[in-house]
Amino acid sequence: MGKTVKGIGVFVLAASALPTLLVLFLSFSGDAGLRFPPTSFSLDPYGVVLGPGIYRDALVRSLLVGLMATALSVACGVPAALALYKHRVRLAPLISAYLSLGFATPLVVSGFAFLLLAYQLGQFGELWPTAVALAVVNFPFLLFTLASAVNIADPVLEEAADTLGADRVKTFLFVSFPLILPGVIAGTLLVFVLSITEFMVSLILATTANATLPVVIFGGLRGALAPHLAAAAGVYVLIALVVIFAMSRVRSIERFLFQN
Amino acid sequence: MAETRREARGSERQKPRFHAGWAIVDGLSALDRRVPERIRGWKWLLTVPALLLVSTLAIGLIDLAIRSFTVHDPFGDAGSSGFTFENFERLFFGPTADYYLGVFIRTLGMSLLTAFTATFFGGCVAYLIVRSRRAWVRGLCILLALVPFLMGEIVRAFGWLLILGSDGLFAWAAGVVGLSFPQLIGSLVGVWIGLMQVMAPIAAFVMIPAIRRVHTDMEYAASTLGASPARIWWHVSLPLLKPGLLSSAVVVFTLTMAQFAIPDVLGAGTTPFVANVIENMFFVRGNPNQAGAAAMVMLVFVIAAIAMLLTFGADRKRGARNG
């Protein structure tokens, strides 16, 4: 029984690793078009992506939008998580349901809601409406991660700090915040990655002036497939690996996955 | 640390060395003391930035909802007509109503299928991660599940295009053996495979906490009492897993209902989902009000479906406890 389940699990993981490995493999293809197996290998696809041009511009925009969305999410999310899950303010369940609006609403609907908003403010085509939209739709993931981090933190430690003469600011800075820090880091990295890889909302809000990398890759998928598309996708595989490494360094993967 | 600092401040002979970090902390403390006691108690103030942030979406949704009840006038100010159900009527009874119904049924069917299959496969992955005894096996499994999750759906769809496409890995492998590989790009099978890869890791992450709650002791206890593996599964593990299975199914269902990229890329435009049709209405046919109506129907349906699934699940749970 357990063996069969584990066997299926191994199969699923292997099957989901296959496209990733294939993208990485073909991103070194030296052919003009993408086909398996490649007849020659080269680093040119990465040159196309990282050299000046639409791909690098889009990558820079993606990172910029990701940073803005993450900063917004964290600035709004950490205080909100403390109020909701630690201080348990009145109407906390209702407020946290409202804050999950971006998760419950289908992304295509959110996208058009933000499009109308950006259009009416005369900001359509700017980068910041995309950043706000991504902050709203990815914010619930930060909140969920922080909720478990706040719940794990032992309130007795704060009382101890209080007894030892620390004021509110010092208790927060040296006791409460370090306790939830792994959760904050996991949530921050998660929101950053989800923002730079987000596609639907970014596509709806995109013009040629503010298209992020997923949107540009998507555009490329509609025509003849070229190796530099695989290289652009390879950049994302690399980013995912770096983030997982960072999360494992602060031991926050387990916190994020094994929340009790 | 605060204690030593205070001592240093107390004794005049020992000149405290200026430390920028502590100066900032002390400054913040001083600022904090100035906050009136009454306001200090207002913890809800902490939620204000988040509420404002999410309200941008709420305002946009309200705008979209209002638009859906007015008719789009391409030559005038959008949304200038009076209140009307015309957009909804066209959606349900217009000349293309059958097409919309077909798209809706396809989306619903694929969402239900994916909710079941992704929960099953994701559950197996979660079981593998939770029950692996060796740390490196667990780490490797987590890595393999996280990488596709963090890559984004476009890169994942692209990967499957390279595997299933006519110049892809499987077509080449079949050619080597001397077979022909069926054209899966543009079919619902291809879309389902892509959806599985997106949703199975998500289902696994949702179910990991649930599977951790099923302690091996309980299964062991049941087996020492003479229960067969099938009975243990049905009477011990499954009831414990039920909340996890349910939330996984709800999450996957919701996310699949809103899918756009996978049906577009792997369906090659021949298997549109609701999101693809809405996008088409808005951009290609340039009728935001009609798209708004479709978006509203979708929003209401998804929220109703979530509510129904959760109530149904809660009832079942209560029934199991009584029984």
Description:
The complex is a heterodimer of chains A (260) and B (323). In chain A, helix 3 runs parallel beside helix 7 (128-152), helix 3 (54-86) crosses helix 11 and helix 7 (128-152) packs across helix 9 (168-197). Chain A has one domain: MetI-like (MetI-like fold, Orthogonal Bundle). With 260 residues, chain A is mainly α. Helix content of chain A is 76%, strand content 0%. Chain A contains 13 helices and no strands. Chain A starts with a helix and ends with a helix. By secondary structure, chain B is an all-alpha fold. Chain B has a domain at 86-127 and 186-322: Orthogonal Bundle (MetI-like fold). Helix content of chain B is 76%, strand content 0%. Chain B has helices at residues 2-10, 20-34, 37-40, 48-68, 86-93, 97-131, 135-151, 153-164, 169-177, 188-213, 216-224, 229-257, 261-265, 274-284, 288-322. In chain B, helix 6 crosses helix 10 (188-213). The longest helix of chain B is centred in the middle third of the chain and has 35 residues, at 97-131. The radius of gyration of chain B is 28 Å and the shape is extended. The relative contact order of chain B is 0.10. Chains A and B meet through helix 1, helix 3, helix 4, helix 5 and helix 6 of A and helix 1, helix 2, helix 4, helix 6 and helix 7 of B.
